[in-house]
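Each lists sequence, tokenised fold; shown next:
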Amino acid sequence: MRTENFTQKFCLAWHTVKTGVFCTVFVLCLTLSFPNQATAQLMTCAFHVQGDRQSMFRTGRIEGNFPISRSMNMREGETYGYGQVNRLLGDIIIYDGVSYIAVPGIAGVEVTQRDDLNALFLAYGASRVWSEIPLERDFEGLREVENFIADMAEELNMDMSQMFLFRIEGEAKYLRFSAIHHDPADTSRHTLGRHEVAKRYFTLKNEPVKIIGAWSSEENWGRYTARSEHIRMYFINENGDKAGHIHDIRLEENANLYWPNC
């Protein structure tokens, strides 16, 4: 993972100032910080979606055949992303090029590192440079995070009709999350009710977490988010023993947002 030098951090401190010159200054800072590389190279990133989350509810089928391993080693940098395993046999969290599988266990969530499985759906991508933006505020709930990401995307002239990934690293005061594991013996048609039965919910408090999230326009709702949400977020904790889909969060101030330079 690459982070900015002093010049970049100084410029990015202006992220709360809503002015028309922000984006020009932002790009100029990146260019000055890396004089030996072309701007086109610095701005290289790529985001992809395999499968369709809502198709399991439309068709009742939960089979997926996209190999997680195919998402790794992207030329733009280390892979980040999230999804669910074929036949809903776990949640997928990809962070810094490592694939974690989270499933409900007897004593809590169980997390393993493996990329030899197929995905039912997978939203993933990479950015050659991630801009580190200090967050000098706390967040209470997913809606506050969603509104903040939307404001940032507008300030930076992101194409909000397209998917993009973002990352957050910081201390979670409280986090409610789920992990999924569908009964392999159940071959009946998949429904929203069966989907809920396959999930278990967990909480953590006062732990450092690494979050990967994706933005979705209304036109893409349901493909890699829920049908009425602009962002979806997954996490892995610092120890690597807790991971899953985030349903609620209270994030301490002084976390860092990592933004793709596209």
In short: The helical segments are 6-12, 22-33, 39-42, 55-59, 142-155, 192-198.
